[in-house]
Amino acid sequence: KPILAPEFSSCHLPNDLPSKPRVTNCCPPNSKDFIHFSDHLKYTSKKVRARRPAHILAYDKEYVSKFERAIAEMKKLPPEDPRSFVQQAKIHCAYCNGGYPQSPTNDKTLQVHFSWLFPPFHRWYLYFFERILAELIDDPTFAIPFWNWDDPDGMHMPIMYADNIDSPLYDCFRNRAHVPPKFLDLNYSRSAGDILADDITLTNNNLKILHTRIVDNNTPELFLGKCYHLGSEASRLHSGAGSLEIIHNTLHAWVGDPFMPNNEDMGNFYSSGFDTLFYAHHANVDRLWSVWKELDGGTRTDFTCKDWLNTEFIFYDQKKIPVKVTVAECLSDEKDLFYKYEGAENTWKDPNN
Length: 353
Ligand code: C2O
Prior knowledge:
There is one protein chain. The chain is mainly α. It has one domain (8-349): Di-copper center containing domain from catechol oxidase (di-copper center containing domain from catechol oxidase, Orthogonal Bundle), CATH 1.10.1280.10. It is built from 13 helices and 7 strands. It has helices at residues 37-42, 54-57, 61-76, 85-96, 118-136, 159-162, 199-216, 220-224, 243-255, 269-272, 277-298, 306-309, 333-337; strands spanning 35-36, 49-51, 101-103, 106-109, 312-316, 322-326, 339-341. The strands form 3 sheets. A 3-stranded mixed β-sheet has the order 1-6-5. Strands 2-7 form a two-stranded parallel ribbon. Strand 3 (101-103) and strand 4 form a beta hairpin. Helix 5 crosses helix 11 and helix 9 packs antiparallel against helix 11. The protein is globular. It binds CU-O-CU linkage.
């Protein structure tokens, strides 16, 4: 059986928080009503929007100021507003640190990592985050940027997030040794720390890792993750993470502040959403899912089993209305959700990597 959307009223204090967390209650405002995605689309623009690489958008002053304005507006909303930045950030904590039961009659906790739920959950999460930003600046064509960390030109923290402490995109809980122009290391681990290597060596290593994780992992199970349905256990110890999730974890650890007790913000589930960079990072993860499906002449497929397709999530939309969505409704970024990715080259595809 698939996991159905949790009731907001079933949200409880997360039972899987690390010690000394910055927040302890991650529950959204309560509401019994909800609509389906098709109803939400009735009042939402269907014009296709383009998400572009953050390292290129950094030179587009108009875009950066619009994006900053949208995030600033979101941060200004009262914390009880489900569209506020705090509430958006808490979504990750509630769905990932044990804020919901899997169902009203099951005592297991809902976990959207370590399984096949990882790609679709985060796709939906960003979709609503983006629709809210667009609404706040009254521009339905607005699209979030993506951190193109799989491209040699994007292998550093995107400048617009890191160069100005007064920007709403800035977050002080990041690894200070990893601000630009520090080069990304996809082999990074917190325990080993930074290695001494020049940018060219790192580029080559990174491209090799990407090639292996994306090109070689050619089945949905290997790339998207193992199955997870009602009654399944997913945790660090019982991990069914696919290779997409595995690469993405490294960036979380690399961005998080090693001097914080739990590597906050990006280095822990509960706090990740408090860093604006989280959403750009996940936009790239989301893009790689779409790119992966086009490899081998488009013969790679998503899962086709009902338990995956019928899994539900629930999010507040730009009108503060709870919307129930399914995995089946999000399989095409452009046809189902009206956004696409532009401007990335995917150099790791090259078999020489
Ligand atoms: Cu929900 Cu990048 O993790």
